[in-house]
Amino acid sequence: MTTTWLVTGAHGLLGRDVLAELAGDPDIVVTGLSRDRLDITDPTAVRAAVAGHGVVVNCAAWTDVDGAERSEAAATAVNGTGVHHLARACADSGAVLLHVSTDYVFPGDARRPYAEDAPTGPVNAYGRSKLAGERAVAELLPHTGYVVRTAWLYGEHGPNFVATVLELAARRATLDVVADQHGQPTWSRALAGRLAALGRAALAGRAPAGIYHGTAAGRTTWCGLAREAFRLSGLDPERIRPVGSEKFPRPAARPTFGVLGHDNWQRAGLAPLPRWDDQLASALKLPVFAALSAAARSSERARP
């Protein structure tokens, strides 16, 4: 049976991987709308876009964390009000909504992984704006709304930490990287596959609505991620020097602990995402990362 899916934010890092994942399924007809074709802060446009679709995957978001601190109202218009419009349109049309959220809805002061139902408490404007979107989904779509929280996302289709450290590796002898923030680096392609599986399970009535944590298994720090990216790329991990967050003051506070638990995937009969280092090893084989790694290795060999 053919189903129709809509992907918002379709030209972003995650959106492009979701489109590619769905395009490989002959039973899915997918529409991808980028920001220039769908402004989710426009309720009339949202209603028209959602009409006729059975599943909506919302990858549209304000992702500039420091920018949100300076312009919280603008960030909330997208991450909160825009999601409300999507949830309302899905409620009116009967569509399932898969909404991508973030670990930043938590305060980051835990000592063990945050469960899906753990109390929230964002420490910055970005987290507050994303929490507003989560609440809209829960309120308007109690039976057909799915919030998938992710974190430390990287991939081949946009700026991200892994690409940045490999680019810098070709220009700098050493890199100072924060070692006191803990999280779960997640490959966008792996998350796209899990979103597709969750949507199929939702349509089949196998996946209870609610919150799912779409992050990699295991945990590390930004420093640990950089060192592993170096190691897997054939570079010297000791070129990465651990520093505290105070070395890089930012307008928005960052949670120091963003590790999430994954229990709710079992309710849907789906496996959680693989370990972060296994995902990274697979991602680094992509041409864009392989080229960055090759350039960095060449630079390292030429360095005195």
Automatic annotation (TrEMBL):
Enzyme class: oxidoreductase
GO BP annotation list: dTDP-rhamnose biosynthetic process
Stored InterPro entries: dTDP_dehydrorham_reduct, NAD(P)-bd_dom_sf, RmlD-like-bd
Signal peptide: none
Cellular compartments per GO CC: cytosol
EC code(s) of this entry: 1.1.1.133
Domain RmlD-like substrate binding: start-end pairs: 6-285
GO MF annotation: an example: dTDP-4-dehydrorhamnose reductase activity
UniProt entry keywords in alphabetical sequence: NADP, Oxidoreductase
Keyword NADP listed: yes
Pathway in which the depicted protein is active: Carbohydrate biosynthesis; dTDP-L-rhamnose biosynthesis
One Pfam family cited in the UniProt record for this chain: RmlD_sub_bind
UniProt similarity note: Belongs to the dTDP-4-dehydrorhamnose reductase family.
NCBIfam families in alphabetical order: rmlD (TIGR01214)
UniProt function note: Catalyzes the reduction of dTDP-6-deoxy-L-lyxo-4-hexulose to yield dTDP-L-rhamnose.
Name of the protein: dTDP-4-dehydrorhamnose reductase
